[in-house]
Specification:
With 460 residues, this protein is α+β, with helices and mostly antiparallel strands. The chain contains 20 helices and five strands. Strands 1-5-4-3-2 form a five-stranded mixed sheet. This is Guanine nucleotide exchange factor VAV2 isoform 1.
């Protein structure tokens, strides 16, 4: 409940479901993202959001880095002693989840948290029964991948769809709603409703972009450097130019009944590719904005002034900046609905092509975002491995990393090693504190990898 009150977990998260167990909470916290977000929510600016890997997926390296970042800030900024904290593996491997809960409880009792007016939860001595529960969690952790259903609650993405719907929603007059409920609509009626939804939501979206430019970008140029402006607003000015032309083309098509709307989407596909840059930089933009709000009082006051001018201050700048990403990923859904009510239309084939084009656009944007995340992950690996003379990006995408025992075929001794598996190679390292010493690079082209849990000695 305390994590929900701190706006770290959404109110409907699975940890509060009637069927929830302690492991559900452990699984939600294991990658360290929510704990880092907690510190930011309690004390904006206490943690550098650029240090957080928001989607570490299955990477033990990145998850532990997040957890260590959390522990360092707890010690340096919140004054918690090392004895009041926990070892990163106590959380990642769920070796001692009781210590994790105890540390979070101490945060809830901290004066910074108390000043938020959020009721703390007590830090009680762990009972023997609790010990049994927490010990069993480590076994459950071995049975569940860290990536299972965990990233459905990343704070930076929560509520994005709700914000979009609230901003872009189309107001339909109540008499019209009652009429549509009473009268059975023909396919042409449904098609016309789809066309109107595309036109009206595009118009509202364009007005939202204009609001951002007029009420945020122009005033904030007076207090931000060009570099900070570019970091926060990315290529929003280019998006506005594209959508000015796009909306005009949609309006012209609607004047002739919308029969040429598919061609409009096909004509603009190439110009809409600029969303790849916008969406792939969104996380960095939000982090930069949050850092500026936390560190500069003049900027924070200016943003508050600007916010009051946009829809009576209902939406924060952080909310508005997410809308373009939500909008561009709606186009294929809008066209799919239009196509379903255009069975007898002569432009049906062109509508199919437009739908495929917008699906391709959505896939391209997601791929660009993944590439950006992958490059950041590779960069983190690169900087942490000593004696590495090659560029890791040459070896393809990272697949998984973690600790394991390696047995030498020479003397059959077992050694603790940390492996990074890429598409083309396995990087074998020895862990040295928070860094790694390179031991070997194994090229997978010349080796065969097998899953041999039964230890079949006949397999060579």
């Amino acid at each position: 409940r305390w994590l929900i009150d701190c706006k770290v977990l959404p109110p409907n998260h699975r940890v509060v479901w009637p069927s929830a167990v302690v492991f559900d909470l452990a699984q939600a916290l294991r990658d360290g993202v929510l704990l880092c977000q907690l510190l930011h929510n309690l004390s904006p600016g206490s943690i550098d959001l650029k240090d957080i890997n928001f989607r570490p997926q299955m990477s033990q390296f990145l998850c532990l880095k997040n957890i260590r970042t959390f522990l360092k800030v707890c010690h340096d900024k919140f004054g918690l002693r090392n004895s009041e904290l926990f070892d990163p593996f106590d959380l990642f491997d769920v070796r001692d989840f009781g210590k994790v809960i105890s540390a979070v409880s101490r945060l809830s009792l901290h004066s910074i948290a108390q000043n938020k007016g959020i009721r703390p939860f007590p830090s009680e001595e762990t009972t023997e029964n609790d010990d049994d529960v927490y010990r069993s969690l480590e076994e459950l952790a071995d049975e569940h991948d860290l990536g299972e259903d965990i990233y459905d609650c990343v704070p930076c993405e929560d509520g994005g769809d709700d914000i979009y719907e609230d901003i872009i929603k189309v107001e339909v007059q109540q008499p019209m709603i009652r009429y549509m409920q009473k009268m059975s609509m023909t396919e042409d009626d449904k098609r016309n409703c789809c066309l109107l939804e595309i036109q009206e939501t595009e118009a509202k979206y364009y007005r939202t972009l204009e609001d951002i430019e007029k009420n945020y970008m122009s005033p904030l140029r007076l207090v931000l450097s060009p570099a900070d402006m570019a970091a926060v607003f990315i290529n929003l000015e280019d998006l506005i130019k594209v959508h000015h032309s796009f909306l005009r083309a949609i309006d012209v098509s609607m004047m002739v009944g919308g029969s040429t709307l598919a061609k409009v989407f096909l004509d603009f596909k190439e110009r809409l590719l600029i969303y790849g840059e916008y969406c792939s930089h969104m996380e960095h933009a939000q982090n930069t904005l949050n850092q500026l709000l936390a560190s500069r009082e003049d900027f924070r006051q200016k943003v508050e002034e600007c916010t009051l001018k946009v829809q009576d201050g209902k939406f924060k700048l952080q909310d508005l900046l997410v809308v373009p990403m939500q909008r561009v990923l709606k186009y294929h859904l809008l066209l799919k609905e239009l196509l379903s009510h255009s069975a007898e239309r002569p432009e049906r084939q062109q509508l199919k092509e437009a739908l495929e084009a917008m699906q391709d656009l959505a896939m391209y944007i997601n791929e660009v975002k993944r590439d950006k995340e992958t490059l950041r992950k590779i960069s983190e690996f690169q900087s942490s491995i000593e004696n590495l003379q090659v560029k890791l990006e040459e070896f393809g995408r990272p697949k998984i990393d973690g600790e394991l025992k390696v047995r030498s075929i020479v003397n059959h001794t077992k050694q603790d090693r940390y492996l990074f598996l890429f598409d083309k190679v396995v990087i074998v390292c020895k862990r040295k504190g928070y860094s790694y010493e390179l031991k070997e690079i194994i090229e997978l082209l010349f080796h065969k990898m097998t899953d041999d849990p039964m230890n079949n000695k006949d397999v060579k």
